[in-house]
Amino acid sequence: MAALDFSLSLLSFVLGDLAFHRVFTKGTSLPEDAALLGAIAGLITVPGIFVTRGYSALQGVYRSRYALKFVLPWAFAFFVIGWIAFLTQTTQAASRGTVTSAFIIGFLLALPTRSAALAYFKHQVSRSALATRRAILMVEETHSDVSQIVTSLKRSGIDIRAQLPFDGSGDENDILSNVKDVVDRCRSILAHENCEAIYLFIPWSDNNKYRLIRSALSKVPVQVYLFPDRHIDEILRGACIETAWGAGYQVQRTPLSLIDRALKRVLDVAAASTALLLLSPLMAAVAVLIKLDSTGPVIFKQNRRGFSGRQFKILKFRSMTVCENGDTVQQARRGDLRITRVGAFIRKTSIDELPQLWNVVRGEMSLVGPRPHALAHDDFYSQLIASYASRHHVKPGLTGWAQVNGLRGETPEVSDMEARVTKDLWYIDNWSILLDLRIILRTVFCVLSDKRAY
């Protein structure tokens, strides 16, 4: 795969040079210079993919993720090339048109080519025609996931040459006797098979059993890898810090890193400010209609909880004859008599939510996130749904993953709110700037067709 990526880099620059000079400018191409730049880009891109573990078997499980691992190192390579060219004033070696064309061609070539190459690689692995490692599997007889373990290891390019189940029950002498029998079988297999390691699957909670097995396996001259059970595996996947006491593993993190929050904030401010400017005539017209239709303020303010549970006042165009903001807040229902004539229209089209763009600019909300609820509803559902408060780990949003999946409006049953919370937590765990853009785009279509808005 590394050789393929390097070849793609060379090909992209050569094709970019030919495309730009012979198709667009009708000038003289310089394929030698383009190939040199392609080699430099490849020497930057391939190590970049290595550093981000883009060639690991775990990434290969997901074809789309594997293909996209090329994108950031590829973009970084062009940044480095451009910076070097600027510092050394050697931009004559290849025109900006060639470099731009090469970047686009490389991107377009890499995604389908890497995806196809990975599919072929996975096919070869699945039929055991290609294996990067050979190993012996030792697992307790009571382990319920043996077939799943073997399948997963094969998908990672590991050829299991032998499976050695052992009985881990009984007292210390029984376990030791069983393990010694398995170790003798290991020696016999290693005498005829070229295996590189033993993969050991036992519960980590039984320290005595681990000590006995490790002592017995110390007589076998191959590497031994101890795989964690599901609970320990979840812990070890967290970030690790080294201290004088020992290693500590992160079991909970902030949903978004500092860089993630900065990117999200840039999108929020840019998009919300632009929307406020473009929609100001519409908002002014709606304000006039509300004032003419019924008595009361144009803007309805209600206390809500934001990031980390901090309270703020959410802004909405008033759509009802009441402005509830206390211990009891009744959700809007279909045919609700409290909704005004103008209110029915602006609620149906979600225009009543537009003042929240100002909440976004002020930093109290984000364009995308879990929708904030009235304080009375927060207090009620937090007692019934254990994970409800986790929604406050990010800023609330003007729209959200739950809303674009049809989970908006009234929640007459607790199960309705549980479904919404599940979607909100999925969003928090899987956030990306592309996901935010996707939700914003889907929101536009939902507003035009959603029948749950009333």
What does this protein look like?
With 454 residues, the chain is α/β, with parallel strands linked by helices. It folds into three domains: 2-126, no CATH class; 133-229, Response regulator (Rossmann fold); 258-449, no CATH class. It is built from 17 helices and ten strands. The strands form four sheets. The protein has a four-stranded parallel β-sheet, with helices on both faces. A two-stranded antiparallel ribbon has the order 5-6. The chain has a two-stranded antiparallel ribbon with strand order 7-8. The protein is flat and about 90 Å long. Belongs to the bacterial sugar transferase family. InterPro entries: Bact_transf (IPR003362), EPS_sugar_tfrase (IPR017475), Undecaprenyl-P_gluc_Ptfrase (IPR017473). Keywords: Exopolysaccharide synthesis, Membrane, Transferase, Transmembrane, Transmembrane helix.
